[in-house]
Here is the input.
Amino acid sequence: MRPISELIKEKPWLGWLIFFATVVIVFILGLFASSIIERRAESVFAYTPQVNHGQFEPRNEVWGENFPRQYQSYKQTADTTFESKYNGATLRDALGENPRMVVLWAGYAFSMDYNQPRGHAYAIEDIQNTLRVGAPMDEKTSIQPNTCWTCKSPDVPRLMAEHGVAEFYSGTWEMLGDQVVNHIGCADCHDAETMNLHISRPALIEAYERQGKDITQASHQEMRSLVCAQCHVEYYFNKEKIEGVPYLTFPWDDGMQVEEMEAYYDKIGFTDWTHALSRAPMLKAQHPDYEVYSTGIHAERGVSCADCHMPYKSEGGMKFTDHHIQSPLNNVANSCQVCHREETATLVKNVYDRQDKVHEIRTELEDNLVRAHVEAKNAWGLGATEDQMQDILMDIRHAQWRWDYAAAGHGNSFHNPLELSRIISSGNNKIQDARLKLARLLADLGHNQPVDYPDISTKAKAQEYIGLDMAKLNSEKEEFIKTVIPQWLEAAKEREATYPVSVN
Here is the structure.
């Protein structure tokens, strides 16, 4: 083969071609090298603290100074535009969509007001606005305890550290109105020094300890679910642990299955409220998302809550957890399709198919429960005795516990549709037993005709039937929102201006 130098002598243009090709190649390589150096520098800069703050700094925007990408994505939890078939991020009046729930919760605050949950950015606003906490003003106290603040804000660990856990739980809800003002955020899940995931709420730690487990031994992947399990769980207010204190407790001592928690409640004689119509000693499920998720196929495969609700994303040279905590149905590409190769429309249909089937049998259980409460009310009116009603009321209690367990868990008809179907089906069996016993009792009491059922086709009609004066409740709430909440926010602003934050 002839040397290149001889070829260039014969064809000078070939030398120019080689020269320009070399320049182009060097230029491209330079761009690659510059990009790599820039991304490495960006990575270092992104994790260089801009401000110093303590663990109990409750303001998310302060934490966001050091982690702007995570904070900016978290701020998107304020976006309420996404709405799925059954949930979503928008404000939805659950009682308006399903007035049967008004009757099912008769005598309990949920019959007044219950909305589907919005994003974490609304945690404080929504609890301030709900009728369930009442309108505490003019020396009138709230109908709820301070314990109701527990899952709403990073101000909670701050107050627990300042005053003690039991002291935080003591008193009524309005007492801390000017103290708990920052919605769910960074300090709830992260250690300020290392940014490792950590547990900030004592109830989960205490539940582990009672089971003989050490939560500090949990793996990082387990922690990506456990930080959610601080709040997305079933719990109750234990007034026996410390006299007079509604101490937040997880009923996991005998297990985390629906029947095991029911047995725990029955054993200690716990009741959330007495039903206004049937007089049954009722249980109100909270939101047992973690318990149901733990029994599902995703948990069995090692998938954490964050894998689906907070999947990883990349910007420039940075890979980080997307803190826009939301339904995976609004982010199918980064959540579902990391593992599942089906098209988006197919995956969404798969979810809705399961939800539809669970909703169908859940609605059947709701109808039977409403009828049982009304039939029990009629039995009392005809002179039924406590002894005659005892077994019936326990059947109603256990059946509605199963319905509420299924209804209160957000997304659980997807987390484990088989388990939800089993739970609802067993609830239907129990309520049918109750209604059969009621039919026999009503006949014994001289009523051998069909029971007249109320018109509860709308929320307003259902609330009127159970005796709620909604005009008065709404008027008082409007005044509270207009006059009291601005005072709370102003007091909080003045206090937070004194919090120490140093700039590096």
